Structures
1.
Amino acid sequence: MRAVTILILAPALSVMCGGAGSPYELPADFDWNTPVNQVLFRHWTKHECVPAAMASDAVFLRRVALTVAGRLPTAAEVREFLADKRPGKRAAAIEKFLNSPEYADMQAMRFADMLRIKSEFPINLWPNAVQLWYRVVRDELAADRPLDAMFREMLTASGSNFRVPHANFFRASADRSPRGMAATAMLTVMGMRLERLPEARAEKFAVLFSRIRFKSTHEWKEEIVYTDYHPAQLEAVLPDGAPVSVASPETDPRRVFAAWLTERGEEDFCRAVTNRVWHWVFGRGIYPVADDLPMVPAGEAVPFCPELQEFLNAELRTRHYSLRHLYRVILNSAAFQAASQPGAEARTRHFAAYPVHRLEAEVVVDALASVLGGYDRYMSVIPEPFTFLPPRTRAVTIADGSISTGVLDNFGRPPRDSGTLDERNAKSAESQNLYLMNSAGLSGRIGRYCRGLQKRYRKENDRLNGLFLELMSRYPTEHERAVFRAYQRSMARREQVQAWTDTVWVLINSKEFLFYH
């Protein structure tokens, strides 16, 4: 019956990408002449691509809160932002979210996926190392530690994986052979796949990682990461094919690669970072696949806008590898603040319209919990040892890739086995629809939420405003108000309370709720 209600009521409500009929605003104070916008406009002009109008204030606020902080804006935040007529309020909102604790949480989740932070098979970092490494990564992201320094330490760290957090970088490789660790390093810091190199070059590059050793201690699951102390003369090549001779252990071969990465290989490092961040913001990279970058762009493996790629690389370098600054540049761009236009494939392909894409599994679950209440409980399924996370833990903050739930897995949370972006499944599935339409747990939470809504808002118009502000981050349109009232009047008086729960079911099943738009 509930599914039928959703199918009947949903088309009448404006639950598609910003609310049908809601006017797009053109902020008079938006700076169209920033360097990044000039690059984008040159590209759009070259390809005869007329950019979409700007997204409304409500759409923008929801978009930036979810992208940066992994959460919905509160009803109070939406009211305040929509009522604010001061110039520069969008830039101010971006700064607010970039400097929030939730920013560090959201970036730590993304880095944990990339770094394969997981206690169990096939990574086997174990809980002590997982919690230590995750906490340090999050703290460094919160402090905006320069990314070149952060990754250089990961590539070269030695010591106990329980006491030297970044020593877990190579331990988090499922394949600890020299070739496997070379592939891990190349994917993580260059966004490239080792198998794309010529076979002879791949083998010689792997030599740089052939001296990494792991030694167990008497502490449960602890390992020491170190460079083999036996003398050896290594003949290897760097990713660009340049030969290098290394006398180990006087020179740690890992340091040779790390030095190359931030000197001659700096462009490859910057390109890997900027493509991942663009992917995290828009759902796809500047290149077709953001972490399968070619040595030399050719064929279909080219950036949609080479000038933009070069510009963002330069921004990252000149601002001392600040991740927060890179986000700031992208979020203040006309591409991020453009309206979404489903069906406008040419515009979307060139990012002249915002590409609609699904929320991450953790963000979906947290969004439902933050509005409806009833956060899920998280614990490990393998007793080595049992790990119980505190009540009201946000899914975005789960450090361990081994700790999940059926709902998170259903919505595509990655297993963190390979560190590739495509491990996260952002596709919609029938099993997700069944959960969102028929979950008994959701039904109870929605009932409690609607009863609380009635207590908080005595007037029906205020109640409808509150419902939309909390779930959709905007006010309902006049059309939606009329549809709701007509639906409510179609019921017997004693049953009209059901209109509220039915409306919540409709809204949480809408594309507007489940997608970045």
2.
Amino acid sequence: MAKASKKAYGNDDIKSLKGADRVRLRPGVIFGSDGLEGCEHSVFEILSNSIDEARAGFGNLITVTRFEDHSVEVEDFGRGCPVDWNSAEGRYNWELVYCELYAGGKYDNNEGESYEYSLGLNGLGACATQYASEYMDVTVWRDGSRYDLHFEKGEIVGELKKAPADRKKTGTTHHWKPDLSVFTDIDIPEEWFRQTLRRQAVVNAGVTFRLRIQHGSKFETTDYVYENGILDYVGEIAGEQPLTAPFFIETERRGRDRADKPEYKVKLSAAFCFSNKVNLIEYYHNSSWLEHGGSPDKAARTGFVYAIDAYIKKLGKYQKNESKISFQDVQDCLILVTNCFSTQTSYENQTKKAITNRFTQEAMTDFFKQKLEIWCIEHKAEADRMAEQVLINKRSREQAERARLNIKKKLTGTMDITSRVEKFVDCRSRDPEKREIYIVEGDSALGSCKMGRDAEFQGIMPVRGKILNCLKADYTRIFKSDIITDLLKVLGCGVEVEKRGKELNSFDLANLRWSKVVICTDADVDGFQIRTLILTMLWRLTPTLIREGYVYIAESPLYEITSKNKTWYAYSDAEKNKIVEELEGSRFTVNRSKGLGENSAEMMWLTTMNPETRRLIRVQPEDAERTAYYFDLLLGDDLTGRKNHIAQDGYKYLDMADIS
């Protein structure tokens, strides 16, 4: 048969997305995600335009409505978006704003045009949101006229409608529904709207953000407004009796990010106070909340540490040879909100969660250093309280770190002991809640289990031969046994007896380094005896492990049944018989499973070690007294009682004996 030829890759295979498809097919490029977060950002793009109008001094009320059908409406009372004929471009402005990416009125903000400081910079938001909508209705009031536009799935439906204005106030209203064929989720939570409008009220002093949420035929209305902006917000967060009163600082600077780049202006403002009860840091730039910070965060870290460290040195509060404070020590008692604006902004991406401007960072760093130095001089009593709290934070952090390192050193030292246990194979994980230890029978089982395990979380401890019967042996003999002491070292939790010797600690469940202790022996008489002796050892020396359910028995299959290159594993005669019945009429072979040491790594993983397919029996005494009685009867010194029990009940267990 001739091989199918591979598809050619030629000049005609290069294609470009056009029109609305540039957003509808790749929303993540513009909105950062095609999920709910991207849908939320599309709403913020429209809201940003209204905020820019309010910041420019046009309108002090913005109303946002969340409808039950997941549509959204944003209404402002600004100048109204220009939508009529643009003679310079030879097109209608509505085409440029809503149907053309990288078209807008904010490219000349550095020259002091319509918007000096604006959220919108790239001319993408309104158009991209329109493209990503199931429908969008735009109503504009300006120049004595009312304009109406209707879009569906990125395309204009009808034409621009123009009529005499039906109200005196100018402004723009957008009502649209995000398209579920563009975003994977459009059910924006109410809480997102509340948080977003509250934040915008914080950084746009005096502007009222009205949120309307539809519930049936009614609308729940909430107004967010901070007359003094970030200063009121910091006071609200601080609550009663902070260490220092909220304080507001501001300045303006001009500079450039690089020598060959244009100069731009930044307006810096911040409100802060110190508290021993709460802490909060939020950065805003051109009204956008910088969730990931960027330049302002770097500036705050440098500026605050520099100024407070200098003040502590001036007071002589550092102890001899004491290390300087870190920003973590300051942050633990700091409430800081910055609200900065610049005529040129470099965001990490269109979602505006961090800025990268070098000059902005340098200007803010210097701003914090200077203003904090002055604040410390003019508010000495408060500055002294702040310095004391920062030093408390620092010393508490260092003490906690020393304790953590000591514990880690102790645990590491204990791990080092296990690394010296002969033939013990550890796993990579150091998380006790994930680690499992398999106690296996002999070196041959060690090899197959080691090859078949998941080395990330499964360790192997081989038991060499039959261990002591710990119910008959005294403690001196028990703790002279290398097999037993090595196993106890690997467990790490110590023993629940007083006469334990120097190498073993008293029992502490918190020091157990495993989430599961799995006994894994051959499914034969010898394997059952070794399993019983290990359980006996655990019952006498660490009974809490059994009571708390940490001990398991790994069932290994008794039979391998093969038919047509497919293998079934049976863990009992009943399972074997059922599989054989189902295969009746087909050729098959039944083999008694080999010992663990003869199993392949793949079989060990599939039948005994894979958490998805293995069978584990949890060892847990339902009746502690009855359990203790049978341990003592079967493994203790009562020889007569044991003979009588075997004579009376032994026939019940004959099928477990290998008498072939």
